[in-house]
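USER:
I wish I could look at a protein chain and see how it folds. I am handing you a single protein, as its sequence and its fold in token form. As I understand it, each token names a local backbone shape. I hope you can help me see how the letters and the tokens relate. The protein I mean follows directly.
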Amino acid sequence: QVQLVESGGGLVQPGGSLRLSCVASGSFVAINNMRWYRRRPEKGRELVAAISHAGTPTYADSVKGRFTISRDNGVNTMYLEMNSLGPEDTAVYYCNADVRLGSWGNYWGQGTQVTVSS
């Protein structure tokens, strides 16, 4: 089994910063691509950022220049550094990863709430 556990969400004022973490645990062989998604109120799920096993990042246009995705393969952890947060970033943020047990599968975390408000 695989567990993805997010942390680091919370309430922050506009212009502030937060750092999200996603830790993968379980009896898996490897983790390939990892991603952060978000679901904003009354909107669908949105891919925020992705990172390959080698560390190559990609970003949604809405977060380019403000968010930074990274990972530490040694501790099976992915991060999302979020700066210059605005109310439009309020959402539940989800960790997603391609993980190999016997075969490759796609897994989700439970989500962490980020609220940007004064």
